[in-house]
Amino acid sequence: MDELPDGPAATSDLLGLMTQYRMRTEYRRVLRGVWVRSDLEPDFAMMGRAAAVAYPYGVLCGWSAAELWGNPYRPADALPEIIVPVNGRQHDGVAVRRVQLDDSQWTTVDDIRCTTLERTAIDLGRFNHREDAVAALDAMTRRHPDLPELVRSELRTWENHWGIGKAHRALAAVDRNSESPWETRMRLWLSDAGLTGFVLQWEVFGGRYRLDIAWPRFKVACEYDGEHHRDAKQHAYDVGRWNDLRTDGWILLPAVARTLTRGRDAYIAQVRHALLSRGWQPAAA
Length: 285
Prior knowledge:
It is a single chain. The chain is an alpha+beta fold. The chain folds into two domains: 43-172, no CATH class; 181-277, 3-Layer(aba) Sandwich (Endonuclease, Chain A). Helices cover 42% and strands 18% of the residues. α6 (130-143) packs across α8 (164-172).
């Protein structure tokens, strides 16, 4: 099937190339009037492109625009998002936004209409939970280092828009040194609990190792143990690394996703106890 168009493609475009029988046999419908090859498994990126086909005068926004701008993270329940004219037709599985969009606030990426980098960042901040928004903004800032300045400049014209306070707070929390959504969540929750003064990606042993979140003066560190740590080779490396660090006097507090969802309060209490045991003092109120 390599000779077939990849899609997503509109019904009318496909019928200009093949019979209806072949289209229904070798393609699957993902949205009303939009098809992809049946040997392709639609993912979030493909469904965003399908939404752009379904709404040819629309502009991808939110998580769909963020994906085009290089953000690999989004909530598990995120839907493709698109800004459409007031009379835009609703498609199941697509979040249709009817919000103000100036001509200066959209562009094209990979030949697809989407909100500009700064407009995308502002929308992520004002329409989503802080942790999700900041995780995405962290990732986008790693790829586009000028993003915070672009957003700050754009926000000067947004003072009367809904949710702009949330966008300001999300932008203020951005740190490009967070390397995963869970690292972002961990540092935000620690800060919320008053456990501040840490640094991210702290290098030890001359750069041989890096610590996700560290208080170097007190030799206390928090580490997120993601799925890539599950294979035997990686686990063996981690054990050797932990032993080296503990021998050097570090208190290490690893966490997995379950720790940070169901046991967050207990984990934060453990971090606080470790810091206090090393002479750390909370910041004055």
